[in-house]
Design a protein that fits this description.
The protein is α+β, with helices and mostly antiparallel strands. The chain has a domain of 236 residues. Helix content is 37%, strand content 26%. The strands form 5 sheets. It has an 8-stranded antiparallel beta sheet with strand order 1-2-3-16-15-17-13-14, covered by helices on one side. A 5-stranded antiparallel beta sheet has the order 4-20-5-18-19, with helices on one face. A hairpin with a 5-residue loop joins strand 6 and strand 7.
């Protein structure tokens, strides 16, 4: 019975034993390809090499970037140095210009003082500097003002009662109501049968054209946005805009252009009259003149030819004749200094005022 049992278990275990024997003899692990059992070293080396190449390329790019940054920095430093040098030169030029302007003003003051004596009045305001001279030393009775505008808005063209048609306004009244330190009569005017005044030619107030005429006989006297005296013949409204004119009035004739005498109309030639004149020096300073006339024993006035020569002696560049005769009036610091030919001030249509 026991033998049958042993044979039964032997029969049962035989397959397992056979498998173990076969596995031990065959050694299947030895028969696997070596490449299958090896770690992929070659693939890893290729990747490492590629990575190293990338790193080398990155280093090269960083070196190039560093070179570029240094070149840019060098360029920036060069431009900065050039800018600083240029800025320094500009400051030197500005300083020289200011010195030259002051020197020019000092020279003008010296010339005028040598010709006319010391100023009879001076005003140093925040917006303008005004020096007033008597013209007795020049052989005339009247007054002249040299004006330097620190602010272009300090000069105004004032219409009588601020309208283009009125009974007129005296120069002293215009000066007082605007708070001006200096005022002279300005443009010519027509007078109607009922006594109403209206300007001739072109009138500009604060950049607005209040009256316009293309009459070629009339000269325009204006001031641009920089306070510079400009004028002459105006042929269109567009020209006024292009010239940047803020203030202006009209009369005739033009006396000097670029320091040269202009022709005097025959009807005006060699006539001795009271005069109101305006001009400017080469440094931009303005010259405002009123000469008395028609007053025997006091002043007979001047001809326009005499005025031209005297203006050249004063080194004036451009000059214009404004309305004269009984209209001529010179207002300074609250009162009329000259002696109008009518014995009193005449109401006029426009006045030039200088604010302090």
């Amino acid at each position: 019975m026991l033998g049958k049992v042993n044979r039964f278990f032997a029969f049962l275990l035989a397959p397992a034993l056979g498998f173990l024997v076969a596995f031990a003899q065959a050694a299947p692990a030895d028969k696997l390809p070596a490449q299958a059992l090896m770690v992929p070293v070659a693939s890893t080396a290729e990747k490492a090499e590629a990575l190293q190449q990338k790193l080398d390329e990155t280093k090269e790019m960083l070196r190039d970037a560093d070179d570029a940054i240094q070149e840019i920095q060098s360029h920036v430093n060069k431009e900065k140095k050039e800018y600083e040098e240029q800025h320094q030169k500009i400051n030197q030029l500005l300083s020289a210009s200011k010195s030259q302007t002051k020197l020019s003003a000092d020279v003008l003051d010296t010339i005028l003082s040598n010709m006319l004596g010391d100023p009879v009045g001076q005003t140093f305001g925040p917006h303008s500097t005004v020096k007033v001279y008597s013209l007795e030393e020049a052989g005339y009775r009247g007054y002249m003002a040299k004006v330097r505008l620190k602010d272009p808005s300090a000069l105004k063209m004032v219409l009588a009662n601020d309208t283009i048609r009125s009974k007129g306004e005296t120069t002293s009244h215009a000066g007082k109501r605007t708070g001006a330190v200096l005022a002279i009569n300005a443009g010519g005017f027509m007078k109607s049968a009922n006594g109403m005044l209206s300007p001739i030619g072109i009138t500009v107030v604060d950049g607005k054209i209040r009256t316009y005429s293309s009459d070629p006989r009339i000269s325009f006297v204006g001031f641009n946005k920089n306070g510079r005296l400009v004028g002459g013949k105006i042929t269109s409204r567009e020209q006024i805009a292009r010239m940047g004119i803020l203030q202006g009035a009209s009369f005739l004739p033009t006396l000097l252009q670029n320091g040269k005498r202009m022709p005097i109309p025959k009807d005006w030639a060699n006539a001795r009259q009271p005069r109101t004149l305006i001009g400017h020096f080469d440094n931009g300073d303005l010259l405002l003149i009123v000469i008395d006339g028609r007053r025997k024993g006091w002043s007979n006035g001047v001809t326009l030819e005499e005025a031209q020569r005297k203006l050249q002696e004063f080194h004036v560049v451009d000059a214009y004749n404004l309305d004269g005769g009984g209209s001529s009036a010179f207002y300074y610091k609250g009162r009329i200094l000259n002696k109008p030919s009518d014995g009193k001030e005449r109401p006029v249509i426009s006045n030039i005022v200088i604010l302090p």
